[in-house]
Design goal:
about 130 residues; mainly alpha; about 85% helix
Length: about 130
């Protein structure tokens, strides 16, 4: 009896560890997106300081190509919109993972208690 509970407990612990790895990966990806938002906001602020007489260049591979100011602003705005959407997606994903993680912790706790009771019964029989 105790061995079966122990195996199930070990299996659940492995699942929990995998879930925590996924949470960690998602947090890391979200942090990268936050850095990109900050970077793009700085670019947007710099572009807002320019007027139509200024020249804007875009790096494509190893070459700088002239770009229209309005086009550059639109590109940065779309990029910010996309990144913010991804951040929202990760927020939702992390909340969902946190709920699942909490449920997993409860399952682990009950299995641990069940295992300890089973061990106590086994000791009482000996």
């Amino acid at each position: 009896m105790a061995e079966a509970i122990q195996k199930k407990l070990q299996s659940e612990v492995e699942k929990y560890k995998l879930m925590q790895k996924d949470v960690s990966k998602s947090m890391s990806a979200r942090q990268k997106l936050e850095a990109q938002v900050t970077e793009n906001n700085i670019v947007k602020e710099e572009l807002d300081l320019l007027d139509s007489s200024n020249t804007v260049y875009k790096l494509i591979g190893p070459v700088l190509v002239k770009q229209d100011l309005d086009e550059a602003k639109a590109t940065v705005a779309k990029r910010l919109e996309y990144i913010n959407g991804e951040i929202q997606r990760y927020e939702t994903l992390l909340k969902d993972m946190e709920k699942k993680s909490e449920q997993h912790r409860e399952v682990l706790s009950s299995l641990q208690q069940e295992y300890q009771r089973a061990q106590g019964r086994a000791v009482g029989k000996v």
